[in-house]
Every structure is written in C-alpha cells, then in structure tokens.
Amino acid sequence: MKQILTTGIITVFLFFLYLLLWGCKEANPEIKVALVSDLMSPQELEKIEDVLKSFDDVSYETISVKELNSISSKKYTHIWIHSTIVGNSGADEIKYKNSIISFLNNGGNLFVSREALFFLNTWGIEKQSFEVESDTITDEGFGRPLGYHAFRSHPLFTGLHGGVYLNKALQDQIVRKIGFFGDMIPSEGKVAGIEWKYITFNENTKLLFEYNVGRGKIIAAGAFLDYSIANFNTLQLNLFTHNVFRYTSGQLDHEGKYFWEYDPQTVNEVSLPADSMPLLE
Fold first, then answer.
1. Please, are residues 131 and 181 in contact by the beta-carbon 8 Å criterion?
2. Residue 247: which residues within 8 A CB-CB, separation 6 or more?
3. What is the pTM of this model?
4. Which stretches in the chain have pLDDT values below 50?
C-alpha cells in the first residue's frame, strides 16, 4: 500500500512539473526571423544558418534584400540584416524605408550587424552618420579578444557577466568597426555596448546600439560579429546572438538595463541631513 501511495505521489508531482514547464515554454513568444541572405559570402551565410538552427525557440527563412520592400510583421517577428559588403548601402535601399518603418511600428524587431548599420542612416532612423575605423589585431600574449561591454549590465549580456568577447580569432586580423568614435554619439539611439579589448574599456568607441521605433526595437552591432572565421569564442558569439532575439521578444526582463551616457559631467552641491554630534572634551 505504501509503495502504491508513493508511486501515486510521484506521478502527480511529475504531472504538475510537466504542466509547469509546458506553461513556461508557452509563455515565451515564438521567434520567427527573416534573414537577408544576399549581403554576405556563402560561407558566412552557412555559418549563420547553423547558429539559427541551434536555437530551439527560433525559426527562420532566408529572404533577398529586395523582399524587404514587402516585409510583414504578421509573418516574421524579426528581420536580421547582416552585411559584409563594404559600401553597399545607398540610394537603392531608400525604397525599403516605408516597409521597414511599418514593420517596426507594428511590433516587428530589426537586428542590423556590421555594414548593415548604414541602412539606419539611409532610412533616417539614425540622423548622425556612422563612422568607420580599422584596427590591426595581433596576439601580444593574451590572445586576440574583441567584444562589447555594458555599463553595469544590459539584457543583451545575459549569462555573459555584463560583457562578451565575441571574437577571439586564431589568427591576426584587421577588423573594421562601424559606430561612433571620440566625442561623436548617436542622435537617436542609445549606447548599449562599448569596445572591450582584453581588459581595456574603450568608452569612446561605441559599437552596440539600441533604438525604439514604434512598438519595435532595433539592435545595431557594428563590429566583431564574424561567423565564418575560426574563433575560440564561438559559444559566446552564439549566446550573444540568441540574446538579441530573446531580448527584443520581451524576454530577459530580469536583467538590469543600463546605457552608456555621454552628457557633460557636473558637480552639484547636495544638502544631506546630519544628526548633531556632541563635542569631544
């Protein structure tokens, strides 16, 4: 009798555990990505598709850049434009503006990476022109780590302790960085991440941005997302990529969200109440 009772309790416990897990899974929105496929090499596309296939909660379809002209938030929750073609964004892409803005206004989300940041200028989403710098990366005894770091924390770095080395190449390389440098800052977006090289924060090299347009979000990552090279930190790159889609889907709300601020520093006098103290004799 005891054995039957114990078995019954275990069965009921497992049933309710299943319902709990099923309920949690159902609570997360479905992520459907339209991946623009014709702005990168076939090798890069293949690696990115492998990454997307590894995410259990993400489905995707490849589209051509021309299909942005009729993209719909009813079919996709996200558009990912990853471009490695230098100087590709120009007058031809202006015709996609209305469709993209409508997609965002209706709650769709946009992820632009590397050269695709210039699309934000073309579409008038970012009024300040993005800048370009190049950097030669060599191993000086600590590898070649390159990545972003938050100010304190941001949901994009969930599971990454506030920062991530996306790119730790096996070979020396020349990297192209798109963002804002020195005193330049975005006019519309917020700086979610700065350059992080080995143990150095480069606060004036702003490379990761967040925008809000209508009901949608844009994440713009201007460097270091290179999926086709040999990389010691592939797992970190993949986790960051997954976080982009999860965060813009309304998940990861438990993580604190801060942005890098570049307002002029000021010193203000503040009056604080203080208890009177007896004089020492």
1. yes
2. 155, 156, 158, 217, 219
3. 0.85
4. 1-8, 10-26
